[in-house]
Every structure is written in C-alpha cells, then in structure tokens.
Amino acid sequence: VQATNLGQPVSASSIISDGTYYIRVSEYISTGCCVPGWQTYLLMNDPFAITTSFQEYALITSTSDSTCVGDSLNFSSSATDVTSWQWDFGLNNSPSTTNIQNPQNVIFNNVGQNIVTLTANGCSFDTIVVNVLPDVQVPTITSNGLLLTSSASSGNQWYLNNTIIPNATSTTYLATENGSYTVCVSLPDACGNPCSDTISITDIGIEDFNLSNAISVFPNPAKDIVSVSHPASARQIQITNSLGQVVSTFQTSGRTQTSIEVPAAGMFYIIIYTDEQVVNKKLLVSK
Q: Strand order in 112-120's β-sheet?
C-alpha cells in the first residue's frame, strides 16, 4: 500500500495529520498478476482508522455498449503498468482479436450479446458485453382490393405519394384515394427504417355505372343508423375513418340491404366488396 498527499508519497507511519490522502492499492490475484487502482480516502483524527474495500477501476471503455450489426465501435484500455494487450471480440467480428492498446473501428457481425475480453500482461483484466441489434427487414405490401397489408406486425408508417399519412401506423391501411402507397418500418430493438416497394391504386372513383347505381347509402348525412342497399354479389362492407383505419366490418351474407350503426360524428368511407369490384362511398355523420 502506498499513500500520497498532494501528489507526494508518504509512508503509513508518517500520516499524522487530517487531510485527503490518495492510496494506491496493488492487488495480486492467484495467477500472480498485479491489478492496480487508485482510491481516495479522507483521513480524520485517527491515522489508523482507515477501513474500506478495494474496488478496481474499469479497464475497458468503448464508444457505446450497443451497436447495429455491421457497424463499428472504438475501444480503449485504462490499465496502468501494462506492456502487452490482447483483445478478443469474438468470432466473425472484425477483427476477432488484436494486440494493440486502443482498437478502433471494430465491426460487429454477430447479432445479440457479444463478450469483449481484454487480457493484459497475460492476465484476464476485464470483460464487457456489447449488444448488437439486427437490421429491420424490408417490408412488403399485399393488397386485397383497397385494403393494403404490411408484412410487418408492428412499427409501420404508411405514406401516400411519399408523404406521411398521419396516424396511419396499423398493419393494414384502406386506401381512400388514388396514388402510390408505401409503408416504412422502424422498431425499438432493431436498426434502420426500410420502406417497401410502391403499390399503385388507380381505380378509386372509377366505378361501373350500373353497379354504382345499384349501391346506395341512406340517409347521408346520417345520425344513428345508415342503410346500405347493394346487389346480392356484395360480400363485405367496411367503414373506415378519414385516416383509412377500419372502424367496423360487416358480412352481407347474400342480403341486398344492410343496416349499420354509424360511429361518432365525422367523415367516413363505406367500402363495399362485391364479386365484380370494390365500391367506395363517402358517409357524413352528424350528431
């Protein structure tokens, strides 16, 4: 044990006055390696009343404890009295090992927890864990009429003509106007924000004249109940809000008229799926 006051070494027997002393402790472990560190103690009244437990200073520092797969981190060693360093970053990482003191631009290719080990002067000094996050998979869009579905179960954001659609973050989105639709995905435990290929919707408002005449929504505006008159070929009716979010779904079961309880006040769309095509009708609800 070596003590120093204001940077000047002193012996234990000469500590006779109150003050702050810096004590350097060298702990020899079973392998015969020396693990140095500095601790600070405030000595008051009794020079022999120092009681503490030795705690090593961290010997490995890195630019971060997490990174994205394929990205790099920098490392350094704060160990003192060391003449040789041996780093182990794990297989498939680049480099997997090195003997320089402060490795830079270490690339991590293994998703999950990667254990980094520093061996100095032939002793295993320190280890840290680097959490490597995967990349978000590029989403795809499938369409069923005007109903668009993302391959991602969460983290979705829909776009129309490269412009964000507010609050359109569900797995599905019902297109309400013609244009080019994409979906981008971001996740808290993964890296990147990839976007799908574009899917084009072009037939909204282009309805078969006879089929359009065969479908009616009344009353419109509505307050409580709305009736949809449709051909027997209609299979399903959906109500969506102005954001394209599905509010309710009804099976028509071969009927030619369906009564629907309308939601809260606002602008909605009634989507009628028939064997021939999909028909989109606006509905105004005022309460």
A: 66-68, 123-133, 112-120, 85-88, 97-98
Query: Cα separation of 20 and 5, whole Å?
Result: 7
pTM of the full predicted structure?
A: 0.55
Nearest to 173 by CA among 157, 161, 185, 186: 157
Q: What is the pLDDT of residues 139-179, one digit of tens each?
A: 999 987 788 999 999 999 999 999 999 889 989 888 878 89
- What CA–CA distance (Å, rounded) separates 59 from 61? 7
pLDDT digits (tens, 9 = 90+) for 19-52: 555 444 444 443 444 444 434 444 444 444 444 4
How far, in Å, CA of 15 to CA of 50, rounded? Answer: 11
DSSP H or E run through 214: helix 209-214
Structure tokens at 25: 């402790």
- CA 86, distance to chain mean position in Å, is 34
Count of CB atoms situated within 10 Å of the CB of 177: 14
* ∠ CA 5-11-16, rounded to 5°: 70
